[in-house]
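Bumping with the actual sequence this time:
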Amino acid sequence: MNEEIAELKRRVTTLEQYREKDKSELHQLDKSLQVFINEMKNISDDLKTVVSNFKEAVVRSTNATQKDLNILKEQYKSLEKKFSVLDNKVEQETVVADAEKWKKIVSYVCTAIVGAIITFLLTKIGIN
């Protein structure tokens, strides 16, 4: 019976040692898990900040792009008006000027022909 009691005491002691070892390991795991949870919270907070900053950057970039686009549209309209004025000016100086020159040449030729005909007729009727 003493041997059974001794064996039981030894088994209880072994079980208590395992229990203490398990408690220690469980405590270490709990601490590690707590550290992991805290790190995840920090990462989550940092990620929220990054997302917020990214959204703000996108909004600022979009606004700047829109502003630049509006400036380019205004410059385009201004250049289009200047081009239209320049086109009209070039047309006046080329097409209209050429037309005027042609009218003058035709007028001079017609005047010369009419003058020649009148001169021919006057010489035929005897007027010098």
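The tokens above came from a reply further down the thread. DSSP finds one helix and no strands in the chain.
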